[in-house]
Amino acid sequence: MSYKRILTIQDISCVGQCSLTVALPILSACGVETCVLPSAVLSTHTAGFTGYTFRDLTDDMPAIKDHWVKEGIAFDGVYTGYLGSTKQIDYVKEIIAATAQNGVAIIDPAMADNGKLYPGFDGEFVEAMKTLCATADYLLPNLTEACLLTDTEYKTDYDKDYIDGIVKKLLALGAKTVVFTGVSFNEGKTGVLVCSKDSEQYYEHDLLPNGCHGTGDVYASAFSGALVRGKTPYDAARIAADYTVECIKETAKLDNHWYGAAFEPALGKLIDLLQ
Question: Per residue in 13-54, pLDDT tens?
């Protein structure tokens, strides 16, 4: 196996088990050289905490990109997560174009869940995110994000035709492969739909009764690491789903661990799944 290098661009939430504090260890556990570009530094994530600090790092991005170009640094993959502003989205597109010409762009449009946008985001951000998603080799939306990206009414009660219509619009947007998470067709089950213009595969697994913050970041990180390591898109989607389920199970063992997923105790399971 060749030694691959991936860049992940997202925020650092110092406490909260999400974004870079999740992506760096998970990608590293996948056996991939992991480089990072923080989009912002927060004292905690924004879900459930109040009064958090926020340091915007947008203005640092162009100089970092220019230095990498000067040094001839390139990446086999770029995986993006939470981005703090529409201006950052433009910079990210430039970074991908300049440093990953021969790599894959993995876009997690981390901006919404449960039918609503995260705090601080608005319609302008959604429109900007559409332009980034159009460049994706792999697009990883949840249902809320997929609806926002395609101007589709958000529903929790849906059928296969509803999901197929959203996927068709995401592919028309420009994404080459859609890895649609949290798609549920049967009671007590959920899964991941992996679609390109000429293929469709679905991986179903149990829907656990407890959820936790940060599982989207856990999933996207595990998928990106497995994909860049050489797994097929479907296998990467399956491995990431199984690992995320293990993280939720580990979290359920803990008292009052509401702010994130206990992904660390399950890292050994991820390594086993990759073998």
Answer: 999 999 999 999 999 999 999 999 999 999 999 888 999 999
DSSP H helices in 72-195: 86-99, 123-133, 143-150, 160-173
Burial of 73 (0-12, 13-18, 19+ CB in 10 A): middle
Q: How far apart are CA 134 and CA 208, in angstroms?
A: 32
Return the closest-CA partner of residue 220 out of 115, 139, 153. Answer: 139
Crossing angle for the helix pair 160-173 and 143-150, nearest 10 degrees?
60
Query: Rounded to an integer, what distance in angstroms lies between the CA atom of residue 205 and that of residue 241?
Result: 8
Give the span between the Cα atoms of 255 and 4, in whole angstroms. 38
CATH number of this structure's domain 5-140+207-274: 3.40.1190.20
What pTM, to 2 d.p., does this model score?
A: 0.96
Neighbours of 158 (CB within 10 A): 16
Q: What is the pLDDT of residues 245-270, one digit of tens each?
A: 999 999 999 998 999 999 999 999 99
